[in-house]
Amino acid sequence: MTLLIAFLVLVIFMLALDLGVFHRKAHEVSLREAWTWTFVWIGIALAFGGWLFYSQGGTAATEYASVYFIEKALAIDNVFVFSLVFAYFAIPLKYQHKVLFWGILGAIFFRAVFIVAGVSLLENFGWIYYVFGAFLVYTGWMMFKNIGKDESLEENKTIRWLERRLPITQDISSGKFTQRINGKLFFTPLFIALIFIEISDIVFAVDSVAASFAYSRDPYIIFYANIMAILGLRSLYFVLANLIDRFYYLKHGLSFMLVFIGAKMIFGDVYKMPIWMSLGTIVLVILISVVYSFYKTKPNKESMRKREAS
Q1: Which of 46, 152, 188, 258 is most buried, by the most CB atoms less than 10 A from its CB?
Q2: How high is the pLDDT of residue 64?
Q3: Looking at the predicted structure, is the pLDDT value of residue 120 above 70?
Q4: Residue 186, H or E segment
Q5: pLDDT value for 26
Q6: What's the predicted TM-score (pTM) here?
Q7: pLDDT band with cut points at 50, 70 and 90 for residue 20
Q8: What is the dihedral of CA 104, 109, 110, 112, to 10 degrees?
């Protein structure tokens, strides 16, 4: 419990520092700033893993590292959603960090809820573990099937529902989630984008938390790893925002990862794969999918000449 309290204090302190000091005023996050914060969050995650190794041993540290990598890999899929949402609502760069900050707070809350619910289900219904595995296989297969399909938000039912039921103004100049016009309260596109991101994260949280249980049954370790992966998601978005189109084959790797983890859970009684072998397989597949994506989408000489000419 002491470690949990210390962890929460660290998270609150870093979030307060992020919003209250470094992003007190809305501004466009530069690539340099994004890389700096990305390394800061990764460094904090590694340092915390080192503390787990020192205080609880190699097993806890290995489980933490495994869950952290899985969550970090799946978090990249969130980046695709962020990019779509910000483009659809035409959210200026200087306001995107604000939306993501409050979105992250919601994500932390829902991850905690899902982890507690998952632990409770596993303690009372052991067979749920295999249901989690089957769900991951299904999710991975559906992700693979949908690769290449139109991901436009033009006809998204959630957005249409929100737009029909909420008084919305298209004025985004205030940078606020709400705005009063002639005494009446209106919601700005920032608020709709935030709600959609929160709903999307709930969907992502279901498979990511389920995947976490394949590598640890300790709710604290799963919570630590999930939160550490989420906290660095904002800076990761700004690092990858201009490279989204070059990650085409990443979804192939992520779909394989989900199916692989699901199969590991389903057939765990038949063959208990060592954690190093399982994690190594996943890391290798994700790395191959990223490297292959960049190789296949590298700009040719003609496109580079056109870009330079323009």
Answers
A1: 258
A2: 93
A3: yes
A4: strand 184-187
A5: 64
A6: 0.83
A7: low
A8: 120
